[in-house]
Amino acid sequence: xxxxxxxxxxxxxxxxxxxTTIENDMGLNRIMPPDDNNAIVDxxxxxxxxxxxxxxxxxxxxxxxxxxxxxxxxxxxxxxxxGFPIEAEGYCNHCKGNRxxxxxxxxxxxxxxxxxxxxxxxxxYVTVQNEVIAAYNELxxxxxxxxxxxxYKTIYSDYYNEKNSEDExxxxxxxxxxxxxxxxxxxxxxxxxxx
Amino acid sequence: xxxxxxxxxxxxxxxxxxTATETEKLDKKDRVIEIYVGKPTNGGNANLxxxxxxxxxxxxxTVDEVGDYALQALSSMPxxxxxxxxxxxxxxIGVKMGVIEDLKSELRMVNLLKINYTTYEGAxxxxx
Lengths: 195, 128
What we know:
- The complex is a heterodimer of chains A (195) and B (128).
- Chain A is of the alpha/beta class and 195 residues long.
- Chain A has helices at 2-23, 68-79, 122-148, 152-159, 166-182; strands at 26-31, 41-42, 48-53, 59-61, 64-65, 111-116, 187-188, 193-194.
- Chain A has five helices and eight strands.
- The radius of gyration of chain A is 22 Å and the shape is globular.
- Chain B is α/β, with parallel strands linked by helices.
- Chain B has helices at 2-8, 66-75, 79-82, 97-109, and strands at residues 19-20, 24-25, 32-38, 53-56, 59-61, 86-91, 114-121.
- Chain B has a six-stranded mixed β-sheet with strand order 1-7-6-3-4-5.
- The interface between A and B is large, with 42 and 50 residues.
- β1 of chain A pairs antiparallel with β2 of chain B.
């Protein structure tokens, strides 16, 4: 009898284990730069938005301590600044930012750097990554609604929906590429920065 | 039944994941390499200590071994999936960035560049 009880307890706990591992199949996707990337990127200061997390988990953005709740908004203002003058090549037509002379020239030039210390907490780092990706997603959503009357996320999930035909997918892919080219995600691993 | 599935992955580390809102679904299992990071749950073995450990394939490995194990996992994938392989980093909320950065640089050395910080769905502010 006690043996039987133990066995059912074993099944129960293993079932619990299985469900917890299988459900965690969502997350933030990132592509890291190759290791042999010796090309040091030179970036104008105005085109670089630096975020760092210190050992005490305080988040600094552009050298000021920032409440993480305000981070997304700041990143959006930076990416969407569109500082190139109207007559310049690379002027950002779709940008709705302040067009400040000390902020990014256009979204293609705008780069976000996220740096952490060894003792920074992993979940704080994930929060910062999340807010930066959220900033891009908000801007992409705005353009997606303007151009195609559909949120970016919907186009994205329709593209990966197996039920859609190849023809539909072709059109969705084209749309994704258009939106991504308006706000290309440029998040940097800090060791490649030199400014 | 469930027992056979369980053999796949036996968690040896604490693994409460952070939360995020901007998540994407991970690719199918056949092209995902999983790395767990967290304090050892130790099953009564106090010798394991409190320092976060890395788990791959049902066992603890050191940071220096991450590249080898990841390549091994990659080599067992069908040829057409190798180029789309993603590394799922399943790190516990108690982990510090030092071990994560070490692990990332090991992955870069073996040119596994597609990573996924695997999370639960939820407000990112819950992490703070």
